[in-house]
Amino acid sequence: MNLYYELLGYPVFTVEDVTRYYDNVNSARSALKRLVAQDLVVRIRNNLYTCISGETGAPVANRYQVACAVTNTAYISHHTAIEYHGLSDQIYYEVYVSSETRFREFEFDGYVYRYIPSRIQNGVVRVTYSGGVRVTNMERTLVDSTNEMDRISGMEEVISFIRSVRSIDERKLRQYLTDYGSQFLFQKIGYMLETFGNMELQDDFYEFCQKNIKKSKRYLSKDVRHGVYNRKWKLVVPDAVAYSKNGE
């Protein structure tokens, strides 16, 4: 048996995975240690490894596979999910990983993996033939990114993402908004989709959002410096041509 070739079948693996090929864990650890010493395997973080490709000399696992292997409940979200869905025109070296289990931030192969608490469970899909990638779907990504706009994505990125989405499932969108149950999120989503969105949403979707905002009055984002008050959504929003619908 050639252990290296066996392990190439796992984008990311643990000592427990290696133990399948040996009678005891000590033998597995020794074999794994030899592969690391030979630069055939690299340690990602505590008890998480990937092989080194003989063709490229780079880790076999990509950043999305690494992220989803960090914990049993890990999945990529926020602007990392936007990237995965092919709707980002920027390259980021931060990978956002939502998980029900906390983990310490770490760096591997030039990327920093940041922990985000998993606040709701719906809207996560396992991608077929991806080597274990789990990612938020388009609707959940939209809701997450808008919810954490000031902490992670930034207003400009969220606007750009919204403009790039051509279709969306209203039913899913309503479900995730209800799961979060945040009055401020209903305000932001309603305003952002109505102002910058290119997808066709029914009037009753916006009515649904308005019914959940009550009397809250807020700034859309900390990035709003000189804004105007939007009475419909009870938000202080940007007053700038750069943020007008479709860039017009």
Notes on the structure:
The chain is of the alpha+beta class and 248 residues long. It has 2 domains: 3-51, no CATH class; 63-247, no CATH class. It has 11 helices and 11 strands. The strands form 4 sheets. It has a 4-stranded mixed β-sheet with strand order 3-4-6-5. A 3-stranded mixed β-sheet has the order 9-11-10, covered by helices on one side. Strands 1-2 form a two-stranded antiparallel sheet. A hairpin with a 7-residue loop joins β7 and β8 (134-136). α5 (78-84) packs antiparallel against α6 (138-147) and α10 (183-196) runs antiparallel to α11 (203-211). The N and C termini lie far apart (63 Å).
Provide key terms for this protein.
four-stranded mixed sheet, alpha+beta, 248 residues, 11 helices, three-stranded mixed sheet, 2 domains
Question: What is the radius of gyration computed over CA atoms, rounded to a whole number of angstroms?
Answer: 22 Å
Shape: elongated
Order of strands in the sheet with most strands: 3-4-6-5
Number of domains: 2
Count of distinct strands: 11
Instruction: Determine the number of helices (DSSP H or I, runs of at least 4 residues).
Output: 11
Helix content: 25-40%
Determine the mean pLDDT.
93
Instruction: Please provide the ordered H/E string of secondary-structure elements.
Output: HHHEEHEHEEEEEHHHHHHEEE
How much β-strand is present in the residues? 15-25%
Largest beta-sheet details:
4 strands, mixed
Residue runs with pLDDT of under 50 for 5 or more positions: none
Spatial gap, N to C terminus:
63 Å
Output the structural class. alpha+beta
